[in-house]
Amino acid sequence: MAVHGGILTSSDPRQRKAFVTYGIIGVVLVLAQGYFLYQDNKHTDTRMGGLEYEVRQLKEQGQSLLNTVKLQATLDDIKGIEAAISDGFAHLEAVIKGKRVPPQQPKQQLPPPVVEHIRFVQRRTASTRDDAPYGIQVFIQADTTIQPVALKINCDQPILDGKFFIAGQAVYITAADGYSDDHKSYLFSFRNPPLTPESPLVVTLLSKEDIRVISIERIAPLY
C-alpha cells in the first residue's frame, strides 16, 4: 500500500499512468472472472435441468411398464382361474354322464406379426386418464437397426392419447406425432435414437373403448 500510495502521490506522469493502467487491468480481471463464473453456473444449471428431465422421463417409462406388468399378471391369473373352472365342470359333467374325456390339445400359438423387419405384441395396461379407461401397450422389436423411425399404428377404436419411447432412452431428436382424421391411427416419427434389436420401442394408447391394434405400417417421417 505504501508503494501504491507513493506512486499515486508521485509527480512523475509515467508512474501515474502505470498505476491507472494497473487499476484498469485489475477491474477487467475482476469483471472477466465474474463473467466466467456466471457462464459456468449457467452451464451447470442447464446441464442439471437436462439431467432432471432425463431422470423424470426414465421414471415415467418405468412406471408405465410396471403398470402393464401388474395388470397383465392380474388378467392372466383371472383367465387361468376361469379356464381351470371351465375344465373342471366339463370333466365333472363328462364323468357323471359316463363319457370319456378326450385329452386337450394345446393350441398352436402364432408368432407375433411381422412388418418390414419389425415384430409387435400388444398388452393391456392401466390407464392414467378417467375419460379413457382402456389402455394397451404395443411392444415393437426390430431385427435390424432402423433410423429414422416412422410408424403408423392402426386400431379398431378411436385413440384419445398416445405416447412412445425406446426403453432406456429419454431424449429424442426431431420427434413428432399425430393422429388420423378418425383418430383410429397414431402416427409418430423421430430421427434419433435409432430402433435397434437390443432396445424395444414401447407405445401406449388410451381409448374410451376396448381398443386393439389391427396393424402397423412404416411411413415417411412427419418432420
**Total helical elements:** 2
Look at the helices and sheets and give the structural class.
alpha+beta
Principal-axes geometry comes out as: elongated
End-to-end distance: 66 Å
What's the CATH architecture of the largest domain?
Sandwich
CATH class of the largest domain: Mainly Beta
Instruction: Kindly report the CATH topology of the largest domain.
Output: Jelly Rolls
Largest sheet descriptor: 5 strands, antiparallel
Structural domain count: 2
DSSP strand content: 15-25%
Tell how many strands the DSSP assignment holds. 9
Mean pLDDT: 77
Tell me the strand order in the biggest sheet.
1-2-3-8-5
Helical fraction equals 40-55%
Point out poorly predicted stretches.
none
Cα gyration radius (Å): 33 Å
